Amino acid sequence: MTARLALAAGLAVSLFALPAHPVRADPVSDIVAALPAALQGLTRLPGPDGSGTAFVVAREAERDRLFVLREGKAPVEVSEAGELGARVAGLRSEADPHGVVAFVDMGDTTYELFLENDDAAGYLFQPASN
After folding, report:
1. CA distance 125 to 53
2. Are 116 and 98 in contact (CB under 8 A)?
3. Residues 34-59: pLDDT tens digits?
C-alpha cells in the first residue's frame, strides 16, 4: 500500500510542477487578437444565396477597404474602392447569368462590381451606369 501511496503522491506533485498550457483559442478569438489597431471595424456581408460569395468591408481611420470572398479561393481586394478614400455606405448583390453583380454605395456615388464565374480573382469596378 505504501508503494501505491508514494506513486499517487508523486503523480500529484508532477501535475503541479508541469507548466500550464493555455487552452487553444477558437479561430474567431485568434482573428480578433491579430487585428491591427488601425482597424476600426470589420463587416462580413453575404452574397446572393448559393453563389459562394461574400464581401468584407474593413473600416480604417481614413478609408474603407472592400474584399471579395469566394468559396475555396483566396480573398481579393477591390483596390479601387480603397483608393477612393470614401466610406462604404451600403452594399447589395444579386446573381446574374455570368456571376455576381454588387452595387456599392460610396459617398454620393453607387459603383457596380462585376464578378465573373470563370475568373475568381478578376472583377470590374466602375460607377453605376444608371
Report:
1. 16
2. yes
3. 888 889 999 999 999 999 999 999 99
